Amino acid sequence: MTVKRDSATTGAGAVPTGPAIVVDGLTKRFGERTAFTDVSFEVAYGEVFGFLGPNGAGKTTTVRTLGTLLAPTSGTATVAGLPLTGANGVEIRRRIAVMPEAPGLYLRLSVAENLDFFAGLYELDDRRARIERALRAVNLLDRADDPCRSLSKGLRQRVGLARALLSDPEILFLDEPTSGLDPLAARDVHELIDGMRRRGVTIFLTTHRLAEAEALCDRVGIMNTTLRTIGRPDELREQLFAKTLQVTTREPVADPGAVFAGLPGVEGWHPASSGDGYVLAVTDPDLAAPAVARALVAADADLLALSPSRHSLEDVYLQLIEEDVEARTR
Amino acid sequence: MNAKNGLSWIRVRALVRKEINDYRRNRFIAVTMAILPVVFMVSPMITLFKLPADAPASKLDASVGLSALYLMLVPAFVPAVVASYSVVGEREQGTLEPVLTTPIRAGEFLIGKALAALLPAVVISYTMYGVFLGVVGGFAHENVVHDIFEAPRILAQLLFTPLIAGWSIWAGIAISTRTGDVRVAQQLSTLASLPPLAITTLVGFDVIKPTVTVAVGLGLGLLVIDILAWRVVSALFRRERLLTGAKAA
User: For the ABC-2 type transporter transmembrane domain, which residue ranges apply (chain B) (predicted)?
Assistant: First the structure.
């Protein structure tokens, strides 16, 4: 693997090329219970990859497995260029950083003492400078000497992020980083993650906050014990939902069938459930929309709005998870 | 020193420093470290000072034996309390997972935890013993002083202190890795720290005559037990089990 790293916090080093994570048929069972099964995906260096799923879907167990804390039951994986084996555990952990859901700080120690301990575990040189840079990256330099127990939950989460940045990891695993935070603190964490993304840090983000994933992630995987789907949020929307145009008119059109028939790109129509317009099934919204507008004007209809339907990542997620629920109750 | 496949003393040192910093600010552990040793030192002193000058030899031996036993409770109990907190304490405050996701090896983790319990225990035990010898040597009856200052007895005390602490530490860490509650771990560890005291009791009460050879021999025996205990604890240490309570499938 070519190593050309660019530091998250220090600006030193080089960005590795090729996949940061390769997972192939990975399965983890605890006795009879399956945490996740036959999971395969790849994450590229510099990518922010969102791992979504309901509670108990196997997200945290996947992170722990890729972080070498748990041994996979079957399947293979490569993390930061190294095969996921017991023998590579130390070297993999040296190249990655994991921030668990709870930041896990020593509350009796100060922020700087916490970071200094972890800098020692990573055998880092110039610890003081690294700690300062990491704290500056999360805007906590002025709280370095404060005991962690005096910090709010949001600030503790930021200390956890600073700790994860200390070793300048190739891959940063963030497990529900905004869980339990108020909207303001969550926004701060989002800004920090966004800043890391701009600096090219590879981030593996597990969350069940869909807006968070949509805003931050280049690609997402939706997990529910198995990996249900994977792709860019817009790709997933297209895969799951037919393309439609929403048409709103002041009054119902006299003969909508005649107006919409034969228009380029329009495959069908039905009245909108709201009762103030129509939903048109289209092959290409950009091709269909001008023709629909012209046809409505020609038919003397008062056109109030014409827009392609927008499905959120939440719609995709709910569709897939509901399919799973239905399949299990069948 | 840093070894590619062996132990990293940088990581061990970081862990020891953090542990001692944390213990100093943990009220329960700080109080245990401060009060227990004083109690175990003062109590035998009172017994010895209450002895009349013409106390029969049997009573003198019994009192000296009791004082030796009391002083051995310091290296038995103090590290047991500290070591029992070492893993379950991390788990309770949610710090175990962040530590285990660093490059630290199991051996480094265990040795760091053990040293962080051993160092204060040995320092406190030797300090208490030094104070005990100083006060008894300065103010007790001559026959008491004569018995207390027997070379094999002093040698046994000096040798047994770190070795008994070693047993308590490995027992405490083993229990700490398997329990989910700090108090339960501390109670079980205190109980588990008692068996090696049988040896010191036999020496203290002259059932085994304290000679230099006996002290060294018993010391070697305790050392072997400590090494075996370390090997067992290392074999039991599994990241997966510590985090999930389950064995690897």
Answer: 12-195
- Chain A residue with the nearest C-alpha to that of B241: A70
Establish if A120 touches chain B: CB-CB under 8 angstroms. yes
Residue of chain A whose alpha carbon sits nearest to that of B23: A108
Which candidate in B102, B104, B237, B241 is best for mutational testing of the A interface (most A CBs within 10 A)?
B102
Q: Are residues A179 and A286 in the same domain?
A: no
The CATH code of the domain that includes A74 is 3.40.50.300
The model's pLDDT over A254-285, given as tens digits with 9 standing for 90+, comes to: 899 899 988 998 888 888 877 788 988 888 88
Q: What is the mean pLDDT of residues B88-108?
A: 93
User: Is the CB of A69 less than 8 angstroms away from the CB of B105?
Assistant: no
Domain that holds residue A167: 19-237
A118 and B105 in contact by Cβ < 8 A?
Answer: no
CATH number at residue A291: 3.30.70.100
Residue spans of the domains in chain B: they are: 9-244
Q: Check residue A5 and give its pLDDT.
A: 39
Nearest to B167 by CA among B132, B191, B183, B184: B191
H or E element: which one contains A86?
A: none
Q: Which structure tokens are listed for A43?
A: 């994450």
Distance separating alpha carbons of residues A323 and A321, to the nearest angstrom: 5
The verdict on B244 touching A (C-beta cutoff 8 Å) is yes
CA distance linking residue B196 with residue B165, whole number of Å? 10
Match 């070793």 to its residue by tokens: A167
Q: Which of A67, A104, A121 sits opposite B14 (nearest CB)?
A: A121
Q: Dump pLDDT digits (tens) for A87-116.
A: 999 999 999 999 998 899 999 999 999 999
DSSP code of B194?
S
Q: In total, how many domains does chain A have? A: 2
Q: Burial level of A45, CB count in 10 A (0-12/13-18/19+)?
A: buried
Which residues of chain B lie closer than 8 angstroms to A67, CB-CB?
101
d(CA A134, CA A141): 8
CB contact under 8 A, B103 and A118: no
Considering the domain architecture, whether residues A37 and A134 belong to the same structural domain is answered as yes
How many CB atoms within 10 Å of residue A144? 17
Between A191 and B5, the higher pLDDT residue: A191
Question: What is the complex's ipTM, to 2 decimals?
Answer: 0.87
What pLDDT is attached to residue A9?
A: 45
Which of A215, A237, A259 corresponds to the end of one domain?
Answer: A237
Residue A324 counted as domain residue: no
Note whether A100 contacts B: Cβ–Cβ < 8 A.
yes
Both A147 and A267 in one domain: the answer is no
